Amino acid sequence: MSLVVKNILRFATGSTLGGVFNFLTTFLVAKLVGPEMWGIWMIFNIILKFSPFTQLGVSESIQRNVPILIAENKLETVRINQNNAYGFSWLMGTVLLVAFMLLGPSLLGIDKTYCYLFAPILLFNLISYNIGIVFRSHNQFKKVGIVSFLSGLLSLISVFLAYKLSFFGFLIGQLVRYILTFLIFYLINKVTLNLEVKLTYIKGLIVDGTPIILIVLSSYLVTLSDRLIIANYFDDKSLGLYGLAYLVINPFLLISGSVNSVLYTSFSSSFGKDKTFLSIGRVFRYTKVLIFIYSACIGLVYLLLPLVTSMFLPDYTDGIDAAKWLLVGHIFYFSGGILTNSYFTLNKQKNRLLIVLLALFVNITMSLILLKYIPDIVSVALGSVCSFIVLFGGLLFGLRFMSHFRNSDQLKGLGLLISFLVGGIVILVFLGAFEFHSNLVIDGLLKVLSFIIVYTVWAFLFNKSDLKKLGV
Description:
The chain has 472 residues and is mainly alpha-helical. It folds into two domains: 1-211, no CATH class; 278-467, no CATH class. 85% of the residues lie in helices and 0% in strands. It is built from 16 helices and no strands. It has helices spanning 3-50, 58-71, 75-108, 112-137, 141-154, 156-188, 199-233, 236-273, 280-312, 320-335, 337-345, 349-373, 377-397, 408-433, 440-463, 466-469. Helix 1 (3-50) packs across helix 5, helix 5 (141-154) packs antiparallel against helix 6 (156-188) and helix 9 (280-312) packs across helix 11 (337-345). Mean pLDDT is 79; it is low at 467-472.
């Protein structure tokens, strides 16, 4: 088994198990506090997702360059960069904490008690984010997987406290979780990290990381702009209903992030040793295998979502249609991970930034146009789907910097890749729309069984030789 696959399994296993606990926590807490209060957490969660950008690309510079520098045996440069990035994360995290406590309640119109409980989470999340990147850059994916698992397990504290104290208790539980996650990261860390903030080095890291952080920021906006639009046009309850989609998507985001982190580090390290490492054929093969994995997993959730929601989250049934569309769209989004890694490794961040900005423009424009005619959260979900399709297609055809697709084998590979992705989605949507039985439970199980059989046959026709080529 190749090192890449081992690292994916180590990281993804921990992240998946942690994701299961996170899913259980969000599922139960959403039920306990209701759509309106859950909408407030959705707002806090958006801020939490954006908080790493206050580091101005310093951590992202570490993730890209450390594997290459280690391969080139420039260990002193690695040490200096890591220490300054770590010190800068403490500095910016403290600034965030103070700023949110002072400005958060008035800007968001949210109870100051909730804001005061949430503010320290921003600090500990930022520091943990930096240490996690250091671990990944040193190929310590097993440790990151362990921390992900334990962090997910610790999230269950929030369920108990939410049961006792409602949303206030949930926030206390989340604060405890983030503090303990930081302590675990710190205790198992074997990479020497000292607090240093030297402007000369920080400036160099910012300059190097700025293109990357702009891409990551624009990518976040692509996935978060829908919730920002809903927060602006609808009430907290509608945002909470829309959050049903991310109840089920978040575990996939964790897994996708795990896989991409391993592959990004592997690509950078291999590229540092061999500049001919990346080829269009390798990129296509990895992408096709990821399409299979994500389509299969998301497909099962897509088909079971109406049944599970009606049985366990009846207050969220009005969010089912939007959630199903978003699940389909995220197949395109997740499948573009390998393409993104190729752009980063080959230092083509500007190319990807233009593609992501185009997708963001499509997301906002389509959402606003559809809202004009259909004022519903489903319209925003459809806008997101359009942007994910544009993002995947743009990244795929943007690989012209690697190949102009003039070779017949490359054109065939491109055609098969697109056919495999689109065909799988057609199978999924058709089975989702078809009613096998009037009983919701029987209907859901028959759909799942049919999907497993049909999609397995479809996938076998396209992927039977790729796993061997990847060294699996």
